[in-house]
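Thread: Modeling a multi-component assembly for a lab meeting

Hi all, long-time lurker, first post. My supervisor asked me to bring a structural picture of a complex we are working on to next week's group meeting, and I have zero experience with this. I have the sequence lines for every component (552 residues in total). Could someone generate the structure of the whole assembly? Inputs are pasted exactly as I received them:
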Amino acid sequence: MGTEAPEAGGELLDTGRGANVALVLWPSFLAACVASLLFFAAVDPQLLSDAGPRIFADLSREQGYALGFLFFWIIAALASSVSVFLIRTRRPPPP
Amino acid sequence: MSVQAPIAFYAAAEKIYPREVKGRFARLRKAAVVVLLGLYYGVAWLDWRGHQAVLFDLPARKFHLFGLTLWPQDFVYLATLLIILALSLFFVTALAGRLWCGYACPQTVWTELFVWIEQWTEGPRARRMKLDRGAWTHEKILRKGAKQLLWITLAVYTGFTFVGYFLPIRTLGVQLLAGAIGGWALFWIFLYSLATYGNAGFLREQVCKYMCPYARFQSAMFDKDTLIISYDGGRGEPRGARPRGSDARSRGQGDCIDCTLCVQACPTGIDIRAGLQYECIACAACIDACDAVMDQMGTARGLIRYTTEHATHGSTTRILRPRTVVYALLLTCAVAALLYSLGTRTPLILDVIRDRNALYREVHGDRIENVYVLKLINLDDRVHRYRLEVSGMEGLEIAVPQGVLEAAPGSVSTIPTRLEAPEATAGGVHHIVLSLQSVDQPRIGVHEKARFIGPMP
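Re: Modeling a multi-component assembly
Sure thing. I ran the full set together rather than chain by chain. Output:
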């Protein structure tokens, strides 16, 4: 490719706290979309209310979808936040 | 550069005021917006044989696509379709660069629409910048208020249409107007409206620059024969102002008059003259802007143009090359597989479940009976009548059910089934086949394997 935007010596830019939150929530949102699509194509959320723990007894299908999506989002966000944490806390290379 | 600019660790994004442009590519973009948004807002209202033509009925776990009804079992079609879309994106990107970004991405298309509203209510670029800098006068409140009103109305209608692809849109519309809409539907309309408003009104190019994964990895599909938008430095430099109609070469100048209109027109705020940058969404606004200037200067168009790296270096551009051929082959295979499997799809599912209570039973003194439960799913959107047949074992007969089975469209029927065979031949385990054949549509039929168990010899 042609001229690139100048980089700070190949180092990661400190992107600030707000950007960190976005870096965690946005990719995990995309991942949760894919996971929900695959999971609910195979599994009917109605199963939860029929055969799952009793707290799910009154769950409608729509609520099942929403709950599943939220669950996937949280799990993916955990993975994303660990990635961001590991990148930001690593030892800087020797000068 | 002698003075090193300080490295900004974090800077708030500066607002970009894209300059309005007219020209060939602006017309093309406008046409794309009209067609794509026309489809988005229009298709939701189409009907097909008494139901909404395109409806992703999540509560009922059925997808309606015109004459086709897809069930969760048909997920493979959706997956194949997604693979086809991804391959098409790769193929188009390898050939023609970021056509998707410039003309077809929802982010671009809705941003374009929102920017039209902005230009219509607040005026052209210079006026918008002045309005933002100025005090909150009566006119500013009126203009900004009108813009927000139109934006919010459009965003809410977009959210409503989106939800209308998941819940029947006519019912949803009536409910919304009567104020009797369900909490969840309202929540999703609100959320999608918010996303539209935020993405197309505020975030705009920042979505492409900071959020879009495709923008970052599209360079992997690029090579020296990919169509890109490029500034012809050899022709343009050294840039500088000059009187209209003057000959640039005799003044020791290039064709670029450094009017910066290409920068002002850029929706992502880059200078295309600095070379290819990942922020460039290839919308070609800079081409239109520059061509208009070149026309005025009496110079040939194309100082900024669609070209390839090979073409700019004087060699020929090849369209047929390993990368495009491989993408095209993969794409053809995926499309053929999808069409073949859709064409041969049988809208009928038969599950055979053996009774778990008893292996077998003796009936009528000299016959062995096995009990099954059949689960029959009619995936078609019309009634069908089926005949059950068994094979794979000598003397095997159906005791129950007798006659023809009828199944309503989209229904799941449970059919208790009893098979019998003479004791003399029934000993041991037999592998049998249950066949369900439609009597009104010869094409529809399924075979399912099962076991018939008799006394151990």
